[in-house]
Amino acid sequence: MATPDARVIMLSVGEASGDLHGEILCRALRSLDPRVRLVGMGGPRMARAGMEVLADPTAQAVVGMTEAVGRVPALYRAYRNLVRRIRRERPHALVLIDFPEFNMRLGRAAHRAGVPVLYFIPPQLWAWRPGRARQIAAFAARVLAIFPFERAIYEAAGAPVEFVGHPLLDAVPLDMERGQARGRLGVDPAVPMIGLLPGSRPGEVRRLLGPMFEAARILSERDARRRFVLGLAPGVDRGRIEVAIATAGSGPRVDIVERLTHEVMAAADVLLVASGTATLEAALLGTSMVVCYRVSRTTLWIARRLALVPWISLPNVVAGRFVVPELLQDDVTGSRLAELVEPLLAGGPESAAQQKAFAELRAALGEPGVCLRAARAVLEVARG
After folding, report:
1. What is the CATH number of the domain that holds 136?
2. I need a labelling partner for 144 at 20 to 30 A (CA). Which of 25, 134, 183, 302 fits?
3. Domain around 130
4. Which residues, in sequence order, are bridge partners of residue 95?
5. pLDDT value at 131 more than 90
6. How many whole angstroms separate alpha carbon 285 and alpha carbon 300?
7. What pLDDT shows up at residue 248?
8. Pair 166, 223 in one domain
9. 166 shares its domain with 184
10. One domain, residues 105 and 201
């Protein structure tokens, strides 16, 4: 039981990636203030870090507007539960982590109840819906920005903002070497290796596996020495992947590994990767990549009308230019993926340009210790 003067911090996370960053933030908060009591919405990682989990939506993550409809009833129940807790317990601060459609509503409710709100990993306003900056400024006591260019956006909207750096700098093993990673995977250092990362959501995996397997078949026919390793994201059914490989017909051996995604990234010569956080992780590890993505036609129609930037992958967004090749929708075919992989395997100018851009990107995202800086800001606000 918390002592009378212990700080109560509520956190709200809606997806597996947020659960990872939430876990590191929870541990940082407890290291700075061992008496702090943590409660809120999150996943198993945050539970292991000592947070009392009131709701866990992280295992049902989806992509796109139309795909998210099925989650609404459960999220509405979670929202009402959190608001009741806020009104009854009056936590010293509420920390929102990403998940904007849900968290912005929760932030407004907490602000009305007199609870100070911090937004860590705020919405990607630079990608779409810039008006949200003003909405967040109306309820946030502080915005903890993770990209350097976000500070100017929130300052212009009148929000108190602090650039803390990108939390992946705390989550990615930046010192992992290629030989070390290949040793853990059992891959010969001399053979060319292509990593397959089809995503963390069932819909992503279902749409991208076929083209990735076809690309592997084409690339293997050109050089039989090439190895293919698929990194299985948490929550993805291994059995479904194995069935998909078996039904794909003739093709090369594809090794499936679990809980070794960073090893796959660091060990690969080139990655075929679904657009998302994994692209930024791979860039931080310095691995060349081809990015691909497919969503429902309705989601694509909406996104094209709201999007403010011409890129889908984070390395390109952060760099502000095309650094890594991107394939979308019907362009995601095995032949196109293989075509874009070949020059990167050859280690020519395309690969060198990616490596140079990745080094610049890593420098722009700040220094490790991101969640510790965020935790200090949270406790500063919580202490008033």
Report:
1. 3.40.50.2000
2. 302
3. 8-171+368-382
4. 11, 118
5. no
6. 30
7. 75
8. no
9. no
10. no
- 93 strand-pairing partners: 9
102: buried, middle or exposed (CB in 10 Å: 19+, 13-18, 0-12)?
buried
pLDDT for 67 equals 45
Domain check: are 207 and 139 in the same one? no
First to last CA, the chain: 23
Asked if pLDDT for residue 304 goes beyond 60, the answer is: no
* Pairing status of strand 193-197 against strand 161-163: unpaired
Residue type, 41: M
* Cβ-contact 277, 47 below 8 angstroms: no
Tell me, yes or no, whether 2 lies in a domain: no
Judge whether 200 lies within some domain.
yes
211 lies in the same domain as 358: yes
Q: Give the range among 42-56, 119-133, 290-304, 342-356 with minimum mean pLDDT.
A: 290-304
CB contact at 8 A, 355 and 146: no
* Contact assessment for residue 312 and residue 294, using Cβ atoms and an 8 Å cutoff: no
CA distance 19 to 25: 10
Angle at 166 between CA 312 and CA 200, to 5 degrees: 50
CA distance 20 to 43: 9
DSSP lists the bridge partners of residue 230 as 196, 256
Q: How far apart are CA 256 and CA 197, in angstroms?
A: 10
